[in-house]
Amino acid sequence: MNNRFSWIFLMGIFVLLSANVQAQRFVGGAVAGFNLSQIDGDLLAGFNKIGVNAGGKVAAVLSDRWQLSLELLYSQQGASRSKSDDLSSSYDKIKLNFVEAPVMINFKEWKFHVSAGVSYARLIDFKVIDFTGLDVSDQQDFNENIFALHLGATYYFNEKVGFEVRWFRALSDLQAQEDSSALLGRSISCRAIYLF
Q1: What's the CATH number for 2-18+26-195?
Q2: What pLDDT digit, counting tens, does each position of 53-74 carry?
């Protein structure tokens, strides 16, 4: 099952990158960076889990200031224990691997883009380590489909290269077990953007 999603992800990247970028109404690009993430409800605090955030994007130019963009990303999120965390948490680390498709509306002013949107993320793999150091992934029941809210700001150094900071907040519960507390992911992404 993971191989199927890997192939879908790679094909999507190629489709995004090979979009009709010579037309004046579309812009294609690549993004690469990292996530700092945490999960609300796991009793671990802080954005201590670092993961990859990379993929491709295509944007439809609606006017001089407005764009509608679609991205296809590989995004690692989760949580990681720090020394100051609550000792009652049963988790030490949660590593989540998603294929994510954010749809964003972007407003451009000078060298800045401000963006907001929603995304659909598909959980393709995960690993959970409990407080004793044991892998308890097979005891977890997570939802594979996650919807989220995104807010971001990008500064473009020139017409092709930019740096973006983006905030992510899950709108749907990762936890599939009805008798367990909700698990809602949050992350801050720092990404470089290259436009073709």
Answers
A1: 2.40.160.20
A2: 999 999 999 999 999 999 999 9
